[in-house]
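Write out this protein's structure.
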Amino acid sequence: MVLVRGQLPGLRGKQGAPARGRGRAPAPDRAPSPHSLRRTVAEPAEGGAVPRTTWHGLAGRIAESNWFRGFIIFVIVLNAITIGVSTYDVAPDLRATLRAAEVVFLSIFVAEMVIRLAAYRFNVFAFCRDPFRCFELAIVAVCFLPVVTSNVTLLRLVRILRITRLIGTMPDARVLIDGMRRAGPPALSLGALITMMCFLWAAIGWMLFGHRTPAGMRGYFDNIGEGMLTLFELLTLEGWNQILHDLRTITPWAIVYVIVFLLVGTYVVVNLMVGIIVNSLDDAYKRRDMERDEADLRRTVAELHQLLDRIEAKAESEAEGPDVLGLRRLEEDQSRPDS
């Protein structure tokens, strides 16, 4: 006797709809499916956990592993040592060995970029969203340009720039560079303010000391250029007492002129520059903490997805269990002689 799943009393169909049996009440509705629960959890953003069974997931785990990063750092340091050794007068055999080592290093860096790109499914745009990754990719890619390979100076420069990849392995160094980048716009504005102040002060100095310099004395304010150079020396506090001593022989107002500029230029403007850099570094560290929190949230969401998959599999197995049990009982009843 052929038994059809949807025609058995009390058994659910393949789509989960209850079959209408004779003499039995319809089966109660099932609990909410894990699929509906899954909708309440946001999908992990790009860069989150990758399924362990995918090839890009395997590449991502390799690229993020500690042993892989340590190996790349070791290769970069070893490459820097070979570059330093090649600057000396060495034997021809050793120089040939250094050239062969350079080929090996380049091959390792290319393999590293392939693995890291594979983690992003070879999506160059997604990979280059991080400026450091874009810089590292460019350093490796330019080695294959004919313009670089045919020019010894450019090739050496590119090899030296590989050492800067160590910055990407130091989290604090990356935060410092990010802080300096954030401090750029306000620092430029402050630099323009300092330039304008030096120009105005140099014009005042030219009017006070320009045509009254004694013979044999350096002309500190013979023109605007010399005046701004003198004021720059005052900003660095290099030899300011000698400049003040020489200018006092011209007019006593030199004391007021120099001291006011030192107070305004050195103790106010320079401290403002330091404050801008400190605030920018603080913002950079806060951004890094936010990125870490976001990464932890993505991992938590990925774990929730895995948990929902397990709940779904368990719910489906429990739903199919009674069907199989009822089917076996019906087969046993039909196989009895008195049936």
